[in-house]
Amino acid sequence: MENKETIESCDELDHRQFMIAAKKLANSFTFGADSSPWVSSGIEYVQSRLYQQGDSIKTVDWKLTARTGKLYVKECEAPKQIPVQIILDTSNSMTISSTSKSKYAVAVQIATALALASLEHVRPVGLIGCGSEEVRISPSLSKEEVQLWSHKMRHFQYGERTRLTSVLNQLKTNPSDTSMVIVISDLHDENSITALKHLSTRHELVVIETLDPAEKGKMGGGIYRINEAETGRSLTGHGFSKWFKKGGVDYLEERKHELTKAGIDQIEVITDQPFSAKLRMFFNFRAIGTGRGSQ
């Protein structure tokens, strides 16, 4: 049986302060207005029909008209904005921190900001938690719903195992329309990289990897012994060593390379570093069709 505890909040802000910070971050994004590789530009053709008085000459289907000898016009519709599905990692490892700000606290703020930015551009947004506790909010255009789930996610139960791979595989096999999927996680689920690769063939995918400075070998002096939250394995190191190094191979860099090779947009956010400008640049580059890949 898992040991779960509830904390008042994942950060030191009250609800009003949190929403102000999230809105400020949201206002800096071009995200939501960016074009998607899954949505064709301009107007999408639907069908052709016989000409009716008042139809514009610009809509005439000349090929069909020439073939049939009757005047036909094209009926088109503007492409719909694809919904945004945010996958938020609520598992154990996200709450463990060597600094005052955990990966989970940063992840919730980013998730809320991205949701608000999405709504500003009339893109429905939903949320899926990938810890042991089931959290699933269907995409909608309700700002009140975003505020409710962001408040809920700041007051959480920790001590959960990750279900990231399971959630990704469910989305992959979901017969629903294509979505933009944003994964905010530390990617401690060992099978998640393969699942992300498969998911990227069906949905537009962005990965925001949250990292503690200790995971990058920036913890400072001293010797420590820890248990890795997801797997339970023991690790021993010093403050300038990286937590996740196997046989001389830094597998943080290895999985970053794997995502880049698969054409998946990915960005690292380290909890003790400013991230607003970095995220703004990342999404702005995506909006103008440059900067695809990892940062």
Question: Topology, pairings included?
Answer:
Layout: E1 5-6, H1 15-27, E2 44-50, H2 62-68, E3 72-77, E4 84-88, H3 103-120, E5 125-130, E6 134-140, H4 143-154, E7 157-158, H5 164-173, E8 180-185, H6 192-200, E9 204-211, E10 223-227, E11 234-238, E12 245-246, E13 249-250, H7 251-261, E14 265-270, H8 276-287
Helix pairs in contact: 1-3, 3-4, 5-6
Describe it for me?
The chain is of the alpha/beta class. The chain folds into two domains: about 10-35 and about 80-285, Rossmann fold (3-Layer(aba) Sandwich); about 45-75, no CATH class. It is built from eight helices and 14 strands. The protein has helices at about 15-25, 60-70, 105-120, 145-155, 165-175, 190-200, 250-260, 275-285, and strands at about 5, 45-50, 70-75, 85-90, 125-130, 135-140, 155-160, 180-185, 205-210, 225, 235-240, 245, 250, 265-270. The strands form five sheets. It has a six-stranded mixed beta sheet with strand order 6-5-4-8-9-14, with helices on both faces. The chain is elongated, with a radius of gyration of 23 Å. It starts with a strand and ends in an 8-residue tail after the last helix. Residues about 35-40 have low confidence and may be disordered.
Label the structural class: alpha/beta
What integer value in Å does the Rg equal? 23 Å
| Shape verdict | elongated
Query: Which architecture of the largest domain does the CATH hierarchy give at level 2?
Result: 3-Layer(aba) Sandwich
Give the strand content. 15-25%
In DSSP terms, counting alpha (H) and pi (I) runs of 4 or more, how many helices? 8
CATH C-level class of the largest domain is Alpha Beta
Order of helices and strands: EHEHEEHEEHEHEHEEEEEHEH
Mean pLDDT over all positions: 79
Low-confidence stretches: 37-42
Number of beta-strand segments: 14
Number of separate domains: 2
